[in-house]
Amino acid sequence: MQLADTIAVVTGAAQGIGRALAERFLREGAKAVVMVDIKAEAVREAAAAIGARAMACDVADAAAVARLVDTVEREVGPIDLFCSNAGVARADPDPHNAASASEEEWQREWAINLMAHVYAARALLPRMIARKRGYFLNTASAAGLLTQIGSAPYSVTKHAAVGFAESLAITHRDDGIRVSVLCPQAVDTPLLRNAEGGAQNVDGVLSPGQVADIVVEAIAAERFLVLPHPQVLTYMGRKASDYDRWISGMARLRRATLEGTR
């Protein structure tokens, strides 16, 4: 898919990867980019700075996402590319107990890291199927392919996000709809800066702009799996070829990470 003359929507766009994607899409010649965030004032400021449109939306609310899609399609035009990018993460309260996160935290991460993708697809699929075209870029994480040490809700919900992207891609390929799932490791965003520990930083920290460049290349190639950190592919191979050895290696990495935070 070429981005010139397209209409794109990016959630979680007030900062970080979302803002970088919006800027990059405009440079590629997108006809319109709608930047979406729950932080209304912040997203308005970000959009004004780059010449995009801004809309406030809580992507954990199915009805709000449906209204967002209706508004964009009515006021801007048919959505060619929907980037479901908003995400949240929090460390396990007890790093020695994988089940220590509260019920509220599990529900919060489930709603934003997974169900926001479902709500966007639910609102857009009938329109895209009728048009026989459309593109979803869903931001997950390398944690959705491997795991995130010290954050069980994040790991589980990102695994689910990857699984939903796979279902979306398989079910709707013959409808002319394409899907990419973005799975970075560490990116210099507030989400990373607020994280505890450092296992996700093992292969270096990328800028949001670097990630956006890689995303544009992947969309042009209509590539499903987008890995800004190519090492992740090697780790996936090791995991698949010998799961027990991979678990042991991750346990060693966890011990080293805990030692480093003391």
Question: How are the elements arranged and paired?
Answer:
Blueprint: E1 7-11, H1 16-27, E2 32-37, H2 40-50, E3 53-56, H3 62-75, E4 81-84, H4 103-131, E5 134-139, H5 152-172, E6 177-182, H6 190-193, H7 208-221, E7 225-226, H8 231-241, H9 243-260
Parallel strand pairs: 1-2, 1-4, 2-3, 4-5, 5-6, 6-7
Helix pairs in contact: 1-7, 3-4, 4-5, 8-9
Low-confidence stretches: none
Strand order of the largest sheet: 3-2-1-4-5-6-7
The mean pLDDT is 95
Main sheet: strands, sense, barrel: 7 strands, parallel
What top-tier CATH class fits best?
Alpha Beta
Report, as a whole number of angstroms, the end-to-end distance.
47 Å
Number of domains: 1
Predict the CATH topology.
Rossmann fold
Radius of gyration from the alpha-carbon trace, in angstroms: 18 Å
Structural class: alpha/beta
CATH architecture: 3-Layer(aba) Sandwich
Order of helices and strands: EHEHEHEHEHEHHEHH
- For this structure, what is the CATH homologous superfamily? NAD(P)-binding Rossmann-like Domain
Write down the overall geometry: globular
Strand content: 5-15%
Number of strands: 7
Features:
262 residues, alpha/beta, Rossmann fold, 7-stranded parallel sheet, 9 helices, 51% helix
Report what the structure shows:
It is a single chain. The protein is an alpha/beta fold and 262 residues long. The chain has one domain (7-230): Rossmann fold (3-Layer(aba) Sandwich), CATH 3.40.50. It is 51% helix and 13% strand. The chain has 9 helices and 7 strands, in the order βαβαβαβαβαβααβαα. It has helices at 16-27, 40-50, 62-75, 103-131, 152-172, 190-193, 208-221, 231-241, 243-260, and strands at residues 7-11, 32-37, 53-56, 81-84, 134-139, 177-182, 225-226. It has a 7-stranded parallel beta sheet with strand order 3-2-1-4-5-6-7, sandwiched between helices. Helix 1 crosses helix 7, helix 3 (62-75) packs parallel to helix 4 and helix 4 runs parallel beside helix 5. The longest helix is centred in the middle third of the chain and has 29 residues, at 103-131.
